[in-house]
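TASK: fixed-backbone design
INPUT:
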């Protein structure tokens, strides 16, 4: 029988990218005459794609609602952030878990709200891009997470069938629920609410635990649940 497909979120799940996103944000804000924001502020803006991030940057800078500025800063941020990977790290155990899943034959995909260009740049930097059969970014489809369309597309591209979604945030939990896929919550990412506030099948804090969780997944119970 085919092994279940595993679909992963990116920021806050596979990679700790806040330092680079924070740096690029503050550089663009400074160029436009705004004061720097803290790392924790910017961390709270990640997970709904670049337009949302820029919207939050401008709101926090007291310049929300200016659509011309929003468009300019979005373009400036995208240009500056693309390929900015020097401060980004894989979370511990990610490389080992992904390599083991791939070697065992699990189909793997990414479903992130990060646009495809910086997604590809960071995956290439860590030399893990070839592990994924499918990569859906925030600009791959007209809709972004929490719309279920990107996750359903990733699932379909992997051939459908049994699949799990692994993510770190409220957005991911809602997306998985709307797509009808079991959600595995990585607790060390950029979630704002407590773990108990996010619908999830299981929570884990260390990628070294993930192969065991997947190997013992109670598929029959999933099928029986409403
Ligand atoms: O907000 C983003 O750009 C990406 O966030 P995600 O990888 O957690 O979907
Ligand atoms: Mg995330």
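OUTPUT:
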């Amino acid at each position: 029988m085919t092994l279940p497909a595993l679909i992963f979120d990116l920021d806050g799940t596979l990679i700790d990218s806040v330092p680079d996103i924070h740096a690029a944000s503050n550089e663009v804000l400074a160029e436009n005459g705004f004061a720097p924001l803290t790392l924790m502020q910017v961390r709270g803006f990640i997970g709904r794609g670049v337009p949302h991030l820029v919207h939050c940057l401008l709101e926090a800078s007291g310049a929300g609602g200016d659509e011309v500025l929003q468009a300019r800063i979005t373009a400036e941020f995208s240009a500056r952030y693309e390929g900015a990977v020097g401060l980004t790290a894989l979370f511990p155990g990610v490389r080992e878990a992904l390599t083991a899943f791939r070697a065992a034959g699990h189909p793997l995909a990414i479903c992130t709200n990060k646009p495809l260009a910086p997604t590809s740049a960071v995956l290439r930097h860590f030399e893990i891009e070839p592990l994924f059969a499918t990569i859906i970014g925030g600009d791959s489809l007209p809709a972004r997470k929490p719309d279920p369309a990107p996750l359903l597309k990733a699932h379909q591209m992997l051939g459908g069938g049994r699949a799990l979604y692994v993510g770190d945030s409220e957005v991911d939990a809602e997306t998985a629920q709307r797509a009808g896929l079991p959600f595995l919550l990585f607790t060390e990412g950029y979630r704002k609410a407590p773990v108990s506030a996010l619908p999830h099948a299981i929570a884990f804090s260390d990628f070294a635990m993930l192969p065991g969780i997947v190997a013992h997944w109670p598929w029959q119970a999933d099928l029986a649940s409403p």
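COMMENT: The chain has ten helices and eight strands.
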